[in-house]
Structures are given as structure tokens and as C-alpha cells.
Amino acid sequence: MPCTLEAAALVQMNRRNQIKGCIIDGPLALDNALSEEAARHKGVVSEVAGHAEVLLVPDIEAGNIFAKAIVYLTKNKTAGLVLGAKVPVVLTSRADSAETKLLSIASAVALAAYKSVSN
Q1: 93: helix, coil or strand?
Q2: What's the pTM?
Q3: Which residues are registered as beta bridge partners of 81?
Q4: 15 neighbors 22 (Cβ within 8 angstroms)
Q5: Predicted local confidence at residue 11, as pLDDT
Q6: What is the b/e burial string over 42-58, where b = at least 16 CB atoms within 10 angstroms of the residue's CB?
Q7: Cβ contacts of 37 within 8 Å, gap of 6 or more
Q8: Do the beta carbons of residue 42 and residue 48 sit within 8 Å?
Q9: Dist. CA 85–CA 13, nearest whole Å
């Protein structure tokens, strides 16, 4: 699957210090990324396993499914952003709450401000 090759490439880029300031590992199944116990049970050895703070998805369709699952199956607060462009892009659903839309805008503004200071 192309996304597994892309994940492996990101890991290698991180090891070469081409991507700095974080620890990257993958591809990891969702249970391995979020649960140390699941990773241990499956024999996955990784600094990231059970401690992932950011989850990357292979495409917008997978991201949409994952985000909707988080919104509707958990009690977490969410924000929708697309990263990688010159500036963060706010991406919300018509069904999102006013709070989610506000958190999305606030996150984009904070990230853009951080990006402009760090450059």
C-alpha cells in the first residue's frame, strides 16, 4: 500500500534530521499508536506506540472517516485543519458545532502566528 511506503519514508526523513523536533514512527495500526498494551501484545517495539500525539492519515477520505468517528464516538473537543500549505486551512463540517468551528479558527490562527515567528 502506498501509504505504508510514505509512512516509512517519513520515519527515515526524521532519522536523517530532515524532519526535526519530533519522534516519528510508522506505519502503526491505530490500536498500536494509542495503546502500549496493544503494541506490546502484538510485539510492536516503538517509542511512539501508546504515546502518539499526532496521527497522519493517507488521504482526505480516511481523515474524514476518522474525524467523524472521533466526533461522534467520543466526548473530545475537535478542530479541523489541513496542514502543509503556506498557511493552515480551516476545514469544518456543516454539521460541526459552533465550538468546533471556533476551535478550528483559533487553532489555525495560533499555528499561523507560531509559523510566522519561527521563520
Answers
A1: coil
A2: 0.70
A3: 90
A4: no
A5: 95
A6: eebebebbbebeeebee
A7: 50
A8: no
A9: 19
